[in-house]
Amino acid sequence: MFCRTISNGVFGAPLFAVALRGAERIRAQIALPFILLVSGIIIEIVVAGSLTSYFASGSGLGMRLESQASAAASSGINDALMRLTKNKDFGATNPSYGVAVGSDAATVTFTLVNSYYTYTVTSLGTAGTRQKKAVATIIVASTTGAVALISLNEVPVQ
User: Exposure check for the chain: N or C terminus, fewer CB within 10 A?
Assistant: First the structure.
């Protein structure tokens, strides 16, 4: 039997005594590497789960921002239609302006195609780091002021 006494140095009083037999000493020596191995595996599983959840939530955020940017661009086109309905010369007098859509924004630009009140309206919607662009062709009747949406397309941002 192996016996060892550890003292605290004050009057030689034993702090605790450890008595291990041969087989118990071997089991005690094997316990530390086993605990380190198991804890390493647990830490690896936690890190892998954290990374997986981080990347999964990041892709969902990107899709949500793209959807919000597309909605902001569409809101910019709708705002341009509303302003042209109220004032048929709005696009000629205000070639570019901004629209706030909640926490997102849209920049609307008018381009007069010909002298017959045919406009190309470009709306660039921005949400966070994502951008979407919508282009519409609008005709305004010069006498009545009636507004007609000819085409509406989402185009890639360059």
Answer: C
Q: Which residues of the chain have pLDDT under 50?
A: 1-3, 15
Two tokens, residue 6: 């550890």
3-state class (DSSP) for residue 87:
coil
Residue ranges per structural domain of the chain: 71-155
CB of 120 closer than 8 Å to CB of 136: yes
In sequence order, what are the beta bridge partners of 114? 118
CA distance 81 to 87: 10
CATH code, 71-155: 3.30.1300
Pairing state of beta strands 104-114 and 118-127?
A: antiparallel
Is the pTM above the cut of 0.85?
no
